[in-house]
Amino acid sequence: MRNNSHSRSKFILFSALTQVILFLTTIVCPVRAEDAAPTTAQLKPIPEIRFLTFAPSPYSGRFDSVRAGLGIAMQLERLSEEHSIPVRITFINGVPSLENGDKARALLHGASTLVIGGSTWAQGSAAPLRHFFEISGGESLWGVSATVWATAGGAHTGGEMVVMDSMRSLMGMGAEVFTLGQQLMVFTTDERIGYDKGEFSPLDCWFMEQFAKCILVNAVTRSNPEKATALAAELHLSHTYYRDIPHTLEELKPREEEILRLVNTAKDPKSLAKIAQKIHIERDTLALALPEPPANK
User: Fold this and answer.
1) Using CB atoms within 10 A of its CB, is residue 202 exposed (0-12), middle (13-18) or buried (19+)?
2) Residue 297 within any structural domain of the chain
3) What share of the chain is helix, strand, coil (3-state, %, to 5)?
4) Number of compact structural domains in the chain
5) Residue 235 falls inside a structural domain
6) Which domain holds residue 18?
7) pTM exceeds cut of 0.85
8) CB 3.0–4.6 Å: which of 8, 105, 170, 205 could bond 139 by disulfide?
9) Residues 104-117 pLDDT 10s
10) Which helix (H) or strand (E) holds 150?
């Protein structure tokens, strides 16, 4: 126990020193002037999609899970704008909440849709993500939809265990969990030929888009199968996604290239902050005293 506590303290200190600048993102599709008169639909609360991320990896020291989460969030932003689907996306660095249970539970309180990400260690969840669930277990998540993504060094090094372990914890708190059909969302970032360590592939970016579609359907159609089916068709989302996997680079849409470039160039806290600025970053009380953004030079 002493070694685990010491390791956890070192991790939290390291995360604070690196100052990963992640803030909350608010994305709301604008209302046209001619639609200014409120309708019943417009009076409904805008659904929130709340991302919680726990990085860096204690194995690699990299922020791969944050970068994957930002890629998913950017896909969500694009989809919400292209299809005029108002959603509020919040993106939170969960590490500061590990100080105590009250802070951890505050990140879960009031959530509608949770998207949680972390990294793999010793064939399972890395300590920060596991500790988060250990100290936040008293929070009720009845009626909350939740899903999980993870990064792992290899395809068979425990990434799926991170997703399943986290989902079981969320289920134990009352949440309704979901994923992309039969796909557990694990991004491999080391053991691949032709890619540098920590580099995402065009196919990774395609899966980020499919996952974003799945999150969007679950977030805005809540317990309405007919509406969910219609929105999935509009987004070209299928639970048999594996039939649509592109097999050549030419099949991938050009818009994937920009998101892929952004997530692959964000290798340090400063570049992560630049990505955050691209998706309309705003302050919020749930940010738990994250560091101020660097001044523009």
Assistant:
1) middle
2) no
3) 45, 15, 40
4) 1
5) yes
6) 2-26+46-279
7) no
8) 105
9) 999 999 999 999 99
10) strand 145-152
